[in-house]
Amino acid sequence: xxxxxxxxxxxxxxxxxxxxxxxxxxxxxxxxxxxxxxxxxxxxxxxxxxxxxxxxxxxxxxxxxxxxxxxxxxxxxxxxxxxxxxxxxxxxxxxxxxxxxxxxxxxxxxxxxxxxxxxxxxxxxxxxxxxxxxxxxxxxxxxxxxxxxxxxxxxxxxxxxxxxxxxxxxxxxxxxxxxxxxxxxxxxxxxxxxxxxxxxxxxxxxxxxxxxxxxxxxxxxxxxxxxxxxxxxxxxxxxxxxxxxxxxxxxxxxxxxxxxxxxxxxxxxxxxxxxxxxxxxxxxxxxxxxxxxxxxxxxxxxxxxxxxxxxx
Length: 312
Prior knowledge:
- The protein is globular and about 55 Å long.
- Helices cover 74% and strands 2% of the residues.
- The chain has helices at 3-31, 42-61, 79-94, 105-123, 129-148, 159-191, 195-217, 219-250, 268-282, 287-310, and strands spanning 126-128, 259-262.
- It starts with a helix and ends with a helix.
- α3 packs parallel to α7.
- It is mostly helical and 312 residues long.
- The longest helix has 33 residues, at 159-191.
- It has a two-stranded antiparallel ribbon.
- The chain has one domain (3-310).
């Protein structure tokens, strides 16, 4: 067994453990509450913590893929967008039960604005380090906004509900830490040459969790988790890539150049898809139309991911 294979096994084990903890400790208890799961901090859960769990493995792998020099270098740029499309499409497809506030207008405006900015940046075909830093700062501000915002209508709670919320928060933290560790192992595997398998493993937890999330949380919560996964993921993906290029230049190890590389224009399709996600989230569709649109959106996200990972 070579080093790359060992890193892939470790990555798969850690991400599998993260998915198991997330489903057992966060999602499964919610499904027992019927049509009205009580979420004291539901906004932070679906707008920040679930998106972080889904995209951290991709973001941590991005610096190890060489930027946009190859198709797998897409992982930190287009990977989060395809995750958002798969989760949002699944929410429209199978998330018939209502749950939580739907995607608010202010959130969808932010998603669309970020999509337009990212599309313009990708269209330049080459991204500068300073542009990546600006995107990273945008992601940090949005993450702070979503973790500190409280829901306008908080239901009265008892001690049992508060204890359940604490258990759910601990499970979410453990799952996120395991996902981050899996992302680090995947980055090591990518450095050793196993970029494709490592990227596929990083995408798997979000894809496998899409249906349980949609059915347990309901359409409203799941759509929000999808939109913020795509938005925060692409900002931190490009931003993390710029940080990895900036540090060697600050220490004088690699003083030449101010760019992250060329070829980002090849990912304009993902930029367009990111721009379309908020439209799909708020489209006034009938139930049959919503199911068809969700199926097509999830299928498109999966098809793009498969095509990018297979390469030319």
